[in-house]
Amino acid sequence: MQPDLPDIPALQRLRTRSPLVHCMTNDVVQTFTANVLLALGASPAMVIDAGEAPEFAAIADALLINVGTLTETRAQAMRGAIEHAVAANKPWTLDPVAVGALSLRTRFCQQILSLQPAVIRGNASEILALAGVNSGGRGVDATDTADSALPGARTLARQSCAIVVVTGEVDYVTDGERTCSVPGGDPLMTRVVGTGCALSAVVAACTTLPGDRLENVATACGVMKRAGAEAASQSAGPGSFVAAFIDALWREGRA
User: Structure pTM?
Assistant: First the structure.
């Protein structure tokens, strides 16, 4: 297992390329997600209409599918966007929020796995559910540990041919054969809405970079962990943490 994070060059490439990331994400986190991407030099767009999303997915550099506030109508728009992204050879990332706990999103995510996601990013319970392993998820909250989900993550990576990221106190990034561990962060990151969802957007941005995709995705995890720890050290609580977190991301890779 590799704890290596050659991330500063990747961050510099991200700022230079400024990839356009099409975020079909949940309603709760859109603004936070956009600000995280902007702080790191990427360009966010939230196009969700069923008529426009497929067209835009072919234009954007990467697509994020986050099922946090999924509806039947939004599922149709997401599927159309995925199909157009795949046809245009653009990478897409899946964030399977609360999969395993609710039937619509579980069924939808199982169906779209056949459409070749570049990355799947979820908590331990979500990854175990997608891998077909009984998990103890409670809605968006994981009740399983990242360590316990690692075998399932490797299985899911091999089955889907995607890089799988299982997040927790330590994040694991695996392609089914190789695995990187990414420690760090701070518990305060779990007391604000959207850090995991925003990580998925940063992962999507990093799928556009040249080089080893597994290392680039591990970079995304490392950046978020490091910024979270720095922000927590300067914050009085969740409110001030958000501003400090965005500022910490802004400083990443600029030295």
Answer: 0.93
